[in-house]
Amino acid sequence: MNYHRVLVKDLKEQDPKFLSVAKGPGVYRWWFPRDLAEKLLMPLAGVDIKRIRKEEIIDGEEYWCLYFGIAKDLRQRIRWHACQKHSPSAVKHGFLSTLRQSISALLGLDLGIGALQRLRRRRKL
């Protein structure tokens, strides 16, 4: 299997690590540091954390795989998940990535248009 690790900070269009990601179909995974993964999973009673895939990825720190997906264009999908703008239009038309929706649901965040409009008003004050 062709296997690449790309950090979110490397997801710039011309970065060689990002350009090495296949444009064809593939499977992708999102890894989270252990402490963050534990916080995200806290609201989910009954999750058997022993069954979650874990690896030491960066400097010996343990990361947990909390999300995976299948894509027809792997590079495009990874860019979409990492770089998508959370806009009222994306919310209104249901075009938020499932990764973004999953994390927001676990954190109890309101993804609705009303929440975005309130946030924009506060920023203008």
Layout: helices, strands, pairs:
Layout: H1 16-19, E1 26-33, H2 34-41, E2 54-58, E3 61-71, H3 74-83, H4 88-92, H5 98-107, H6 113-124
Antiparallel strand pairs: 1-3, 2-3
What is the CA-based Rg, rounded?
A: 16 Å
**Biggest β-sheet: count, sense, barrel?**
3 strands, antiparallel
> Number of helix segments?
6
Secondary-structure class: alpha+beta
Query: Are there runs of 5+ residues with pLDDT below 50, and where?
Result: none
Rounded average pLDDT: 77
The overall strand count is 3
- Secondary-structure element series: HEHEEHHHH
Description of the molecule:
There is one protein chain. By secondary structure, the protein is an alpha+beta fold. Helices cover 39% and strands 19% of the residues. The chain is built from six helices and three strands. The protein has helices at residues 16-19, 34-41, 74-83, 88-92, 98-107, 113-124; strands at 26-33, 54-58, 61-71. A three-stranded antiparallel sheet has the order 1-3-2.
Tell me briefly what this model is.
The protein is an alpha+beta fold. The chain contains six helices and three strands, in the order H-E-H-E-E-H-H-H-H.
What key attributes describe this structure?
125 residues, alpha+beta, single chain, 6 helices, 3-stranded antiparallel sheet
